[in-house]
Amino acid sequence: MSDHNQPSHLTQNNYSAEEISCALCLFLQENILAPDVEVTPDTELAIIGVDSFSLMEIILFIERRFGLILPPESLTPENTTSVLNLSLCCVNSMTS
Amino acid sequence: MSFPTEFPLNGIDHFLHQLDPVLFQASGKGNVCSFVVEVEGHLTALALHEYLSPQPTYQWITRLRLRRGRLFKLARWSVDVSANCPSIQEHELSVTGEPPDSLLNPLINPEQESSFRTDVILTASQTTIIVFSWHHALMDAHGAETFIQHLCSPKPTDNSEWVKNIKPRCEHSIKERLKMVRGMKVYLYDACRLPILSLYQPKPAAPTLRHRVLKLNEIETQKVVETARQQGAGFLVSAFYLAATARAVAYIQSQRGPLQGDVLVPVPQDRRKRGAHESLVGNQVTFIFYRIPQAALNSIKECTTELVQQITKLMRSEAPEGYLAMIGLIQRLPSGFYRWLLKSPTRGLMASFFYSDTGDSLSDFKTFYNRQVVNAIHYPPNAYPPGVTFIFTRVQGALQITVSYMEEVLDNEEIEMLVQHLKSDLLS
């Protein structure tokens, strides 16, 4: 699966919501979505066909890329509607 | 639009083709799927034939014939240019008011005839039931839905990507693939160890296929989603469906005697890229094998949590990719040895039951050939053993469950108890 290894000099607290959004959009574009489907941080994920198994792949990507295991209770419908919401959820989990 | 004239079966297609003689030997039935669409108004077989037969995609699909593999050559689909589009026949409903069994599970020989067929039933209530059946080696349920919706949409789109086999999500070197295959083999032999919980009872006579469809309304469906979250499924609602299904099967088994063994269930996972209708032909799925310990069957929450943990663990270890790598590698084995290999881990029992969730692909399926869709139901090929298959579908926002079973495996009282237990868990 195409992704990037976590840079060794960064800890998980170094990432902003924008950086996470950018990485997630790239991961979606390269691994989950058909070539002509566009995704931005605000795109509603369900509308572009992201289902529960795809969401699981995104969660596992976050784990590999940012070293962050999101607690199940944080993965509410609201937090998983878009890349931006998911990124903000990641930032909240990092800081809490 | 140009179509390939010859292309090989992928590893999953080959697996499903090899299952055909195994199923036939045990039950006299083949590995054939059906999708039944009921529309408003009368639509004759002739009118449907005249509409479908000029369409290039339909002509291409119905002219594909399977050519057996030989040493160092994989089995292939090949276009028979001299073949005609299959005729569409009109039928009557059975005495139970359902499409006749012969239509829901026809025998299809993909080497000699079209692997896709269409039948029509005109009802007394001014609706038409259209039964689409296809050999499972040709396409999966999602591919068939895409094909059927494409054929009967007001403006069929021209998308050549539909006819291409998709590439694997990630490329691995041969060394990496061999490592994955070894890991998968160890995992499978462990997951499939006997005993496993099963309702299967071998009978000498040819088993009789039955279906039971459980339909929930939109409000009940929403409640199921909420219950799934409360029971620990999070966004993996399908894990909750599977937990409820496993518990219903275990409940029936417990009525017969003490439970023996864990639940083993292989679940297909769609590997298509999301957001576009791609890859029509070929089974674009992999399988995830779950083994639910007996102890976890005691409560729906425990069972759901167990499944969510297994999904996470298996996807983290790239088990779905490992299974694809393994099934692709053993595709070149001689057929007899291949089939022996399929049956050997469970000594032919295969699974506790089969399960599939087709997702939300039919949520917007409201019109078909300019007619209002009244109903749409998937009927699976029912593998025997184990003789019980569940399909979860969401049609126009409402959850629908098809239970296909052999009469010899579940009697009338048991199927009612099973459906009640399932519904009760889903709406608990």
What is the gist of this entry?
The complex is a heterodimer of chains A (96) and B (428). By secondary structure, chain A is mainly alpha-helical.
The CATH H-level homologous superfamily of chain A: ACP-like
Whole-number total of structural domains of chain A? 1
Counting DSSP H or I runs of 4 or more residues, the number of helices of chain A is: 3
Taken as a percent bin, the fraction of beta residues of chain A is under 5%
Shape of chain B: globular
> Uncertain spans of chain A, ≥5 residues at pLDDT below 50?
1-11
Order of H and E elements of chain A: HHH
- Low-pLDDT ranges of chain B: none
Describe the fold and architecture.
The complex is a heterodimer of chains A (about 100) and B (about 425). Chain A is an all-alpha fold. Chain A contains three helices and no strands. In chain A, helix 1 packs across helix 2 and helix 1 (about 15-30) crosses helix 3. With about 425 residues, chain B is α+β, with helices and mostly antiparallel strands. Chain B is built from twelve helices and 15 strands. Chain B has helices at about 10-25, 45-50, 55-60, 100-105, 140-150, 175-190, 220-230, 235-255, 300-315, 320-330, 335-345, 410-425; strands at about 5-10, 30-40, 65, 75-80, 90, 115-120, 125-135, 210-215, 265-270, 285-290, 355, 365-370, 370-380, 390-395, 400-405. In chain B, the strands form four sheets. Chain B has a six-stranded mixed β-sheet, with helices on one face. In chain B, strand 3 and strand 4 form a beta hairpin. The mean pLDDT of chain B is about 90. The interface of A and B includes residues 31, 63 and 72 of A.
